[in-house]
Design a protein that fits this description.
335 residues; alpha/beta; Nucleotidyltransferase, domain 5; five-stranded mixed beta sheet; 10 helices
């Protein structure tokens, strides 16, 4: 059995092929990052147009690398939300067309559960058929920051999320204030790699709700600091970036570890684009008393292999979408 995955929730056009055991046969991604350097972020209209231009080529490339063709695909799995609605529509309609033309099952997948299952791609300590449930997942990216309790496969409960900006967004905007291009997270990490994380103490989270996040205060404090201390920015750029990153990762780690202790989970999974952050990984590994797992860095960001694996599990669970499947920009996991 071969499963075709399609992911177009944001600005990356992605397709992958996996087998019935979850082995990744191909994983192709076409990034649009170069088109947004002058805008400081994604432009939805450009994103949807680029998806429409590239989707056919990306799917064909995934099939070629997997040494197969569309006639050998038994299931098509696609992200149908959340995300940019124009981008989502391109992927959903492509998947529906393949499902109809080849008379094969269609599975719509929540992008966030896709990130959860990115943890099981080529991750040798974790086996998808014997995971250490119950687990707590921190989904952390440019668009999402939330804590999800996973009791068993496909059983999710969101216990906390950001009230405003996502963590990745706070990194992007801080980098933008420094004059750097999008995406900003990797740039801040590189600049702060050798900096002193205690050079300046940026504000931590003060809201009373123990499992919720907020990054608008940190973002604003960071921007104001840069405006008021321009001389220090010239002489202590690495220290400032390290201090900002330290504050952001502190918020993520402390709230996640508290939730993990309160819920008595067996393990923690940290997924999404920001999970590739070196400081975040080191801090979790140092402070957590239970195992913490991260996806391979190549699968931390949006990809279609994770969508294919989640779709396969839904199919094995007896689920199937129909050709009325529609994109949902505000789709969420159960709370």
């Amino acid at each position: 059995m071969k499963i075709l995955g399609i992911e177009t929730s944001c600005d990356d056009t992605a397709s992958a092929v996996i087998d019935e055991n979850g082995n990744v046969l191909s994983n192709v991604l076409s990034s649009q990052t170069q088109f947004y350097k002058d805008f400081g972020g994604i432009v939805p209209e450009i994103a949807s147009r680029k998806h429409a231009e590239l989707i056919g080529y990306v799917i064909q490339e995934a099939l070629n690398i997997a040494n197969t063709d569309i006639t050998n695909i038994n299931l098509v799995s696609v992200t149908y939300g959340p995300g940019l609605v124009g981008s989502l529509i391109v992927g959903v309609e492509a998947a529906k067309a393949i499902s109809f033309a080849k008379n094969i099952p269609l599975i719509g997948v929540n992008h966030l559960e896709g990130h959860i299952y990115s943890l099981f791609i080529n991750n040798k300590p974790l086996k998808i058929d014997s995971p250490p449930f119950p687990m707590l997942f921190l989904i952390v990216s440019g668009g999402h920051t939330e804590l999800v309790f996973v009791k068993n496969h496909l059983q999710y409960k969101v216990i906390g999320e950001t009230r405003d900006d996502a963590a990745g967004e706070a990194l992007d905007k801080f980098a933008r204030a420094l004059g750097y291009d999008y995406p900003g997270g990797p740039i801040i990490q590189k600049l702060g790699e050798k900096g002193n994380p205690y050079f300046y103490k940026f504000p931590r989270l003060s809201i009373k709700s123990p499992y919720e996040f907020s990054f608008s205060g940190l973002k604003t404090a960071g921007v104001y600091y840069l405006q008021k201390h321009q001389d220090e920015v010239k002489t202590h750029l690495g220290d400032i970036c390290a201090s900002y990153e330290e504050a952001l990762t502190d918020i993520l780690v402390k709230r996640t570890l508290k939730a993990a202790k309160d819920l008595n989970v067996k393990a923690i999974g940290v997924v999404g684009g920001v999970s590739a952050n070196k400081r975040l990984r080191e801090k979790f590994n140092k402070q957590s008393k239970i195992p913490v797992y991260f996806p391979e860095k190549g699968f931390s960001t949006d990809n279609a292999a994770m969508i294919a694996i989640a779709g396969l599990l839904h199919y094995k669970n007896g689920e199937q979408s129909n050709l009325l499947l529609d994109a949902s920009s505000t789709l969420s996991l159960p709370k």
